[in-house]
Amino acid sequence: MIAAAVVPHWNRIDLLRELAASLQAQTRPFDEWIVADNGSTDGSAEFAQSAGARVLRLGRNLGFAAAANRGIEAARADVVAILNNDVTLDREWLDRMLAGMGNASFATGKILRASDPSRIDGAFDEISRAACPYRGGAGKPDSAFWNQPRVIRFAPMTAAVFRRRLFEEIGLLDERFGSYYEDIDFGLRCAAAGRSGVYLPDCVARHQGSATLGAWNSDTVFFLSRNQVLLAAKYFRGESLWRIVAGQLLWGALAVRHGAGYGWLRGKLRGLKDAKGIEGKPGGSSQDRLHTIIKASERNIFEIQQQTGCDRYWRVYFCLLRR
């Protein structure tokens, strides 16, 4: 099986050096790794080429989704790993990933915080009926709960492996999302088509997290806020408008608490404008299937919160909106 790694990248050569070292240390090496460079100005492209990568010089910052797509299109492989530039992989990551994914369409592993490996950065993703995604385990202590393999619908493209043919069947990432939640959009399309993945906790990566902009940077919050609206417009036809508005307002309150209220408001206004160009998924049985998927995903969020401890946002959300 031929395996390629695709790394969307923009500046931060220091991160790229660490990732390159972990790729070169793999017990089962990647057959190729591709850096889709979004017009870096710090020598990243030159370093990547000298380290053995195939470099796609995109000339300007096209965003994560577009850079990932160019890399996927260029990959000559049976499976494609999509990796953030601020991750490092344990030495057996790829070996265990290929051995464990079986017949699944995609796979992801346990992602720990680089700054505190005793805590989860993320595992698998879910989404609520308010069109607000949930990053499983984010900030929680690593524990036995996160050591259980499971079937999943959404793989965070922080560090995940996909069968190349899946992109031919489902399509590439939706470049309208730019950066953030393009993996949720892809997961919804996969789930609607009956494709699923696996979570393999013995495949461990470490993630610095929002290393380029910062977790509550105004631009980060802008894109997250905007893309929540795009998800709602694309997939949530027939869902409760009250639930969507309330859930996203609650998330806005969290952004205000972190000093990013202006970014949240800008994102919502831009999302409402951009959503006018998005055609919702068709009704009928397809929409019924999406409703079932989204409802089951929210139930998973509730159950995970009950078993691992409630985050403030989800505690309030379920107190107000669970029914």
Provide a descriptive summary of the structure in words:
This protein folds into two domains: 3-207, Spore Coat Polysaccharide Biosynthesis Protein SpsA, Chain A (Alpha-Beta Complex); 218-321, no CATH class. The chain is 43% helix and 19% strand. The protein has helices at 13-24, 44-50, 64-74, 93-100, 164-170, 182-192, 218-235, 241-257, 261-274, 285-308, 312-321; strands at residues 3-9, 32-37, 54-57, 79-83, 87-89, 106-113, 120-122, 125-127, 133-135, 150-152, 159-163, 197-207. Strands 1, 2, 3, 4, 5, 6, 7, 10, 11 and 12 form a ten-stranded mixed beta sheet that branches. It has a two-stranded antiparallel ribbon with strand order 8-9. Strand 2, helix 2 and strand 3 form a beta-alpha-beta unit. Helix 7 (218-235) runs parallel beside helix 9 (261-274).
Describe the structure using short key phrases.
323 residues; alpha/beta; Spore Coat Polysaccharide Biosynthesis Protein SpsA, Chain A; two-stranded antiparallel sheet; 11 helices; 12 strands; 43% helix; globular
How would you summarize the topology of this molecule?
Elements: E1 3-9, H1 13-24, E2 32-37, H2 44-50, E3 54-57, H3 64-74, E4 79-83, E5 87-89, H4 93-100, E6 106-113, E7 120-122, E8 125-127, E9 133-135, E10 150-152, E11 159-163, H5 164-170, H6 182-192, E12 197-207, H7 218-235, H8 241-257, H9 261-274, H10 285-308, H11 312-321
Parallel strand pairs: 1-2, 1-4, 2-3, 6-12
Antiparallel strand pairs: 4-11, 5-12, 6-7, 6-11, 8-9, 10-12
Helix pairs in contact: 7-8, 7-9, 8-9, 8-11
